[in-house]
Write a structure and sequence with these properties.
Helix content is about 80%, strand content about 0%. The chain is mostly helical. The protein has one domain.
Amino acid sequence: MYRIKDGALLIKITALLFFHVVAKDEICLYDIFRSAINIDLLLSYCFILVVFYFVCVAMAQ
C-alpha cells in the first residue's frame, strides 16, 4: 500500500537530486536521506520540478 511518507521521501530525493544536477551543488547522498528540510522549501522544489517537467514535455511535442 502506498504511504504518504514514502511519497514525500521520493519527492524529496528527486527534488534534491534535480537541484544537485542543475545547480552543481555538493550534496552528499547521506545528507539527502538524512536531512530535515523545511516543508515550504520542499514544496517550492516540487513545484519547480513539476513545472520543469511539463515545460519539457510541451517542448518535446
